[in-house]
Specification:
Layout: E1 3-5, E2 11-13, E3 25-30, E4 33-36, H1 40-50, E5 60-61, E6 64-65, H2 68-81, E7 85-91, H3 94-107, E8 110-113, H4 116-129, H5 136-142, E9 145-149, H6 153-156, H7 160-165, E10 178-182, E11 201-203, H8 210-221, E12 230-231, E13 234-235, H9 236-248, E14 252-257, H10 266-280, E15 286-291, H11 297-308, E16 314-317, E17 320-323, H12 330-336, E18 339-344, E19 358-362, E20 374-377, E21 387-390, E22 397-400, E23 404-406, H13 411-422
Parallel strand pairs: 7-8, 7-18, 9-10, 9-14, 10-11, 14-15, 18-19, 19-20
Antiparallel strand pairs: 1-23, 2-3, 3-4, 5-6, 5-20, 8-16, 12-13, 16-17, 21-22
Helix pairs in contact: 2-13, 3-11, 3-13, 4-10, 8-9, 8-10
């Protein structure tokens, strides 16, 4: 496969490896890989992209290599026969999702992102009563207290503290905010240690106790008496001290990641977190900051919403969108659909095991646990082709650059050609 790096180096690039979309990276070399301002997560992403095994660079039908045109026709034939296809995975950026939305409308497909089991918890909370959230710029410029609830920020978004907490170049020349972890083991809070060696404080270390503790914080915030010495293994006196810190803060930011909540009915805990933020705003300023899960989930849900009125876990019937965040999940739809189109372009994530006719369009290193009926490798966004993505706070989009030339088509091209075959 032809695989040439564009000759202009160094190159300023945007990293799609997490929802922060850091755009201050500078690619100086690919062999060996050298990127200024890169975190471990971005190094892994670009290392896998530039030095992938390229094991699946040719399209295939029923496991046999073929040309792109034949693969596209075979994929279109599967969708043409299908009465209720599922388009899942959806690991893509804005342009890819725009094309997928048109194909879904043309084929009466259901849509679900690979990480929606977590993101739907946030959606349920927002739909139920709204919420007050902030942007990354506001965190950097205004926050004087960061409360991370049940979430290892340093692992999921490695440059969060470097760019938003420790950076002294804020608009209002404020000191670095205090960082408090709730329901996170001390081992996972080390990434929040400041350059001066200041450690984050912790309240409780058992993430399974987060629901009980957050409810206790809400009670204490409205001066309710708790007739116990501890809640969720944490002294009530420690919780009261945290409440006083929140009340005294000029701009507290409560951070959580829905994917970190490994307990049932996590949406109710997120609702309690939102309630905590709302109550704080009666006397001071506070905001929430939900972290995303990755693989373009923020871009996919925003694009779906502006085009159909609904985030993913939606479907089209006679070209009209419907929404059901329970019945349109991948798990449910694999039982009710008659074909699967799996999309994963950022990472080599396999399609779920199913006996349904399956089309896989994705990363050239996609691990094919089961030979799909059609496999079409496509370029990696931000490496093989340009694109755009929503940052996790959904306040701005950032451009992805094309960094090399190769023979792989991009996802939009493939999806548009499949749609044309259905016309």
């Amino acid at each position: 496969m032809k695989n040439n790096l564009n000759p202009t180096l160094p190159a300023s690039i945007t990293c799609p490896a997490c929802g922060m979309l850091c755009d201050d990276l500078v690619l100086t070399s690919t062999a060996p890989l050298s990127i200024k301002n890169a975190c471990a997560k971005s190094i892994t992403f670009f290392e896998q992209s530039f030095h992938s095994s390229n094991s699946n660079t040719a399209p295939s039908v029923s496991g046999k290599a073929t040309d792109l045109e034949t693969a596209i026709k075979a994929a279109a034939a599967i969708l043409a026969k299908s009465k209720a296809p599922l388009i899942a995975g959806l690991g893509t950026e804005v342009q890819g999702m725009r094309s997928i939305m048109r194909l879904a409308a043309a084929s009466n497909a259901a849509l679900d992102h690979m990480h929606s089991e977590s993101s739907v918890r946030n959606t349920l909370t927002m739909q139920n009563g709204g919420w007050l959230t902030t942007t990354l710029s506001e965190v950097k410029n205004r926050a004087d207290l960061i409360l991370a609830i049940g979430t290892d920020i340093g692992n999921s978004h490695p440059r969060f503290f470097e760019k938003l907490v420790w950076d002294s170049a804020s608009l209002f020349d404020k000191p670095s905010p205090e960082v408090v972890y709730l329901g996170v083991s001390a081992e996972k809070t080390k990434s929040a240690t400041s350059p001066e060696g200041k450690l984050a404080s912790t309240v409780g270390d058992d993430p399974t106790q987060v629901p009980e503790i957050v409810n206790a914080l809400n009670a204490l915030l409205i001066n309710k008496k708790i007739n116990a010495e501890t809640v969720g293994g944490v002294a009530v006196s420690a919780l009261q001290a945290l409440v006083e810190k929140l009340k005294a803060a000029k701009y507290a930011v409560v951070v959580w990641s829905a994917s970190s909540f490994k307990f049932s009915h996590a949406e109710l805990t997120i609702q309690s977190i939102v309630q905590l933020v709302n109550q704080l705003n009666e006397t001071t300023r506070a905001a929430g900051l939900p972290l995303n899960s990755g693989d373009g989930d923020s871009s996919v849900n925003n694009t779906s919403t502006w085009l159909s009125g609904y985030p993913t876990r939606n479907r089209f019937v006679n070209g009209k969108p419907e929404y059901d965040n329970y019945h349109f999940s991948t798990k449910k739809q694999l039982q009710n659909s008659d074909a699967l189109l799996w999309v994963s372009t950022f990472n080599s994530i396999s399609a779920p095991q199913t006996a349904l006719p399956t089309i896989v369009i994705g990363h050239p290193d996609t691990k094919l646990d089961r030979t799909p009926d059609v496999f079409i490798p496509v370029g990696i966004p931000g490496v093989d082709h340009a694109g755009s993505m929503f940052r996790m706070d959904s306040s701005i989009t950032l451009p992805l650059k094309k960094l090399r030339d190769n023979e792989l088509p991009n996802l939009s091209e493939v999806i548009n050609r499949i749609e044309a075959e259905l016309a």
